[in-house]
Recover the amino acids of this structure.
């Protein structure tokens, strides 16, 4: 599909592994003083003196994490990088370097690979991150992208999942459920297209949720604003698997419980509307839908007035309790429902339904 | 094949992603003071104050880099880790942490995954490296292993590929070509087995080359010995793609040439014998065979006497010249042959010959 865009098609084997590495990495200038040596040696050399180094890896597999039918390669590259940056922001750190491992089958052209790296480049520019290494190899079937991100934080700035205390306020940035609605729209149009290849996909009017799915952003701005306001979260995690799953992580790691108010969960109007069209309760889309990459964090109550200054970006959705392991959703009519993680679980997906959310 | 060994078979979906991560990472105690936080948060936290951080990634794909027909999973895990450590030693550094990205199809059981991690654990123990993070997901076909290694070195200790000077001596550790011979033996026995499944593989007598292929070691000892002797290589690289390819890398990055003496190339007697059985000139196996993971490095001539003390482990095989880009092999009868990289080139391998060396 990616080849429709370009007339040129250069086969991967025309360049060979080293030619390919040279080509895809040539336009990645180093931006961070800590990036002493990038691509081109056995390892990159990084200097983080006096800082903590943060490291995280994500593996994205075609047919599991993305569907080439509707994922433009440039968007895919951008997203693959950004979701990794998000992990570093979730530690209250700053992403500084990435190394990219890529497995590609020869049904991809060099131009397709250029598109993928154009997306990675755009993400690196937007977030001031250096590409400092990689490994490119062939793959028997489809595309595999492994991105490892390195970040830094001052010792006293690192925020773990484990620091939440009873009575801390539970906060979330942005709004939730949109990325999942975007996925449902794309899956619906794909199914229509497969049934009738002459059909034009109906994507207009869904811009917000499609962008949430295809081109998510990491909340660099929220981390910076919190710092500027002098708020250090007591615990933090990014929302990749859905709100419920992430709350349970914070509770487990911190040894606390949580009371979550359903009517406080931030939803974009378009997310709510589309959810209803799909006969999904909007808050359930937020609780169980993944890939929003918003930040979920807890703050001490003393910071309540400060966080009000971020009310456009941050919503207080509940509070932590001393009831270790008990996380509950309080519905608008005061029903209490135990929270369960029903997010992405790639291992429960049958081979015929790859990429589709499990709903057990 | 991995399931023949164990009676138990637990399906991956019985544990789910988080259960799986808990299971495979539970027995990895942190050994390095710099590993402040390992598995279980958005990112690992590493403290390398006053040191350079080194980072390298390798992606291993089933059917391209390994063949499950003859690769025990424990060996595969060990090798996947060790080849990454080798990249850090090749910078004259010490590997300290790894993060592991794993894509697996559900034809693998949890017990198979345990085997793979047992190999990674063994490597971490042998090389004093901490597993500090990972990402485990399903894969549509086969196994994908992405390992990112983090290492450290004092600022003044880092050795790049680019530091070789004219008249430096070219040195190599251990002996070469063995891993390639091991691969040829395994491929031969696989072909025999496919032709006649009742046949017993004939692997006895090939122990050395099989171990070179299936369970390579990184030359931690050589790096330590060089330090003890006060020798700092002027340039260094590890041999993953074959001697010729790596020499060309050093020449290119350092802007020098090289004269290599064919009769100095270290070969184990069993490598030479097997090469002849396959009608391959033994030195060609060393020049073009990959995966030996020995160290190739250059030293100043003033260190010649010191390096003699390592003559059991290190061989001087040539010297660097000012003839930028001209790398030549001097045969025993004084013929001069331009060196060409004919090592692994995974993109040139047709889909029917995956895993087989290209010979163009």
């Amino acid at each position: 599909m990616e080849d429709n865009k370009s007339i040129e098609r250069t086969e991967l084997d025309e360049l060979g592994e080293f030619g390919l590495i040279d080509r895809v990495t040539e336009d990645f200038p180093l931006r961070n003083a800590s990036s002493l040596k990038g691509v081109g040696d056995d390892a990159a050399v990084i200097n983080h003196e006096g800082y903590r180094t943060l490291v995280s890896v994500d593996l994205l597999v075609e047919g599991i994490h993305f569907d080439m039918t509707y994922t433009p390669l440039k968007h895919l590259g951008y997203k693959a990088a950004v979701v990794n940056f998000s992990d570093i922001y979730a530690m209250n750190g700053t992403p500084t370097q990435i190394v990219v491992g890529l497995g590609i089958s020869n049904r991809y052209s060099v131009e397709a690979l250029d598109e993928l790296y154009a997306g990675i480049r755009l993400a690196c520019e937007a977030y001031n991150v250096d590409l400092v290494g990689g490994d490119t190899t062939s793959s028997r079937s489809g595309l595999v992208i492994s991105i490892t991100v390195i970040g830094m934080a001052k010792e006293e700035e690192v925020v773990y999942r484990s620091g939440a205390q009873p009575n801390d306020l539970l906060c979330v940035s942005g709004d939730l459920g949109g990325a999942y609605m975007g996925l449902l729209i794309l899956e619906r149009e794909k199914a229509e297209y497969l049934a009738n290849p002459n059909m034009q996909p109906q994507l207009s009017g869904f811009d917000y949720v499609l962008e949430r799915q295809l081109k998510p952003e990491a909340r660099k701005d929220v981390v910076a604003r919190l710092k500027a306001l002098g708020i250090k979260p007591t615990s933090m995690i990014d929302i990749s698997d859905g709100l419920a799953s992430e709350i349970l992580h914070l509770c487990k790691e911190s040894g606390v419980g949580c009371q979550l108010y359903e009517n406080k969960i931030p939803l974009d109007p378009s997310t709510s509307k589309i959810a209803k069209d799909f006969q999904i309760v909007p808050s359930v889309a937020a609780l169980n839908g993944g890939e929003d990459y918003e930040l979920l964090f807890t703050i001490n109550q003393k910071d309540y007035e400060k966080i009000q200054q971020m009310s456009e970006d941050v919503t207080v959705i509940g509070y932590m309790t001393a009831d270790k392991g008990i996380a509950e959703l309080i519905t608008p009519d005061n029903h209490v429902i135990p929270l369960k993680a029903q997010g992405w679980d790639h291992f429960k997906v049958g081979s015929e339904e790859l990429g589709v959310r499990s709903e057990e």
